[in-house]
Write a structure and sequence with these properties.
- By secondary structure, the chain is of the alpha+beta class.
- The chain folds into 2 domains: 96 residues, Glutaredoxin (3-Layer(aba) Sandwich), CATH 3.40.30; 141 residues, Glutathione S-transferase Yfyf (Class Pi), Chain A, domain 2 (Up-down Bundle), CATH 1.20.1050.10.
- It is 49% helix and 9% strand.
- It is built from 12 helices and 6 strands.
- The protein has a 4-stranded mixed sheet with strand order 2-1-5-6, with helices on one face. A two-stranded antiparallel sheet has the order 3-4.
- A hairpin with a 5-residue loop joins strand 3 and strand 4.
- Helix 1 packs parallel to helix 4, helix 5 packs antiparallel against helix 7 and helix 5 runs parallel beside helix 8.
- The longest helix is centred in the middle third of the chain and has 22 residues.
- The mean pLDDT is 92.
- It binds glutathione.
- Glutathione binds next to helix 1.
Length: 271
């Protein structure tokens, strides 16, 4: 059922946070596609941590949507409680980084900027395959909130979250698959010579892997080359700089986590 429409004027608005790797897939897409703020305005959410040290994204104070909802609880805006969220001028909301990017790619005219999906149907599928491997098969299993909760509530082996064995296992498992795929389809960038949607999804996940201490060049040389070529693109570099640099900054509260998980020693082993 269609959501209640607001005034259908003004830009779309992307609710995101610089600490969110899923959000960064979309902000990279916007930067690389050259979508101006007059078309999609970036709105940073608030950021808190709960008693376990887990990040909680909140509706921004003073935002008109927060005012309408009467709460900063993100689940009132998006029942999934997650970002990114794309808000259309008519009030409709789209969630999930993949569908958000697909919607933007389908609705922005080909005359505006360079499309970030190849024309060839097979190569389009290759780019989406890489995006799906990141979004569906990698990020959820290495996600620090998931790992913290599994340690605290479901008896999983205790270790510092950023370098937890489960996190390392799934990053290495999926990066191994991506390395084989990239060996067939990468040129300068992930799919051929031009930067595509695939690079927009790979870059934030590589930042997570670097926070986990993975030696990308030694373990995944093709992925490492594709990453180096991506971060050499000015638009990509600008998004990374705005989000705190090449390595994903720590986005949980290590001190609260230590108390919650009763871990000996500091949880903050990787800066
Ligand atoms: N599959 C989602 C993942 C979104 C996601 O996990 N977002 C994180 C930040 S990177 C989040 O909002 N987490 C808050 C929570 O799960 O409560 C997508 O691709 O958009």
């Amino acid at each position: 059922m269609r959501e209640e429409a607001a005034s259908p004027v003004g830009p779309m608005r992307l609710y995101y946070h610089p600490a969110s790797s899923a959000s960064m897939r979309v902000t990279l897409y916007l930067g690389c596609r050259g979508v101006p703020p007059s078309r999609v305005e970036l709105v940073s959410t608030g950021f808190e941590t709960d008693h376990r040290g887990i990040p909680v994204f909140t509706m921004p104070e003073g935002d008109p949507e927060t005012g309408k909802l009467g709460t900063t609880d993100l689940t009132a805006f998006n029942p999934e409680g997650r970002i990114p969220v794309l808000l259309l001028p008519d009030g409709r909301k789209m969630t999930q980084s993949g569908p958000i990017v697909d919607y933007l790619e389908d609705s922005i005219g080909e005359s505006e900027g360079r499309p970030l999906l190849p024309e060839d149907p097979w190569l389009r599928a290759e780019a989406r395959r890489i995006a799906w491997i990141i979004a569906a098969d990698t990020q959820p299993y290495q996600n620090i909130p998931f790992i913290i909760q599994a340690m605290g509530e479901w008896g999983m082996v205790k270790a510092p979250p950023t370098v937890h064995p489960l996190r390392l296992h799934f990053i290495r498992r999926e990066f191994g698959a991506l390395e084989s795929i990239l060996n067939r389809c990468a040129g300068r960038h992930a799919v051929g010579e031009d930067l595509t949607l695939a690079d927009c999804f790979l870059v934030p996940q590589v930042r997570n892997a670097l926070l986990a201490g993975i030696d990308l060049a030694a373990e995944f040389p093709t992925l490492s080359r594709v990453w180096e070529n991506a971060i050499a693109v000015a638009e990509v570099a600008a998004v990374l700089e705005a989000a705190g640099g090449i390595v994903q900054p720590l986005a949980f509260d290590a001190e609260k986590f230590e108390v919650y998980a009763d871990l000996p020693g500091p949880a903050r082993t990787v800066e």
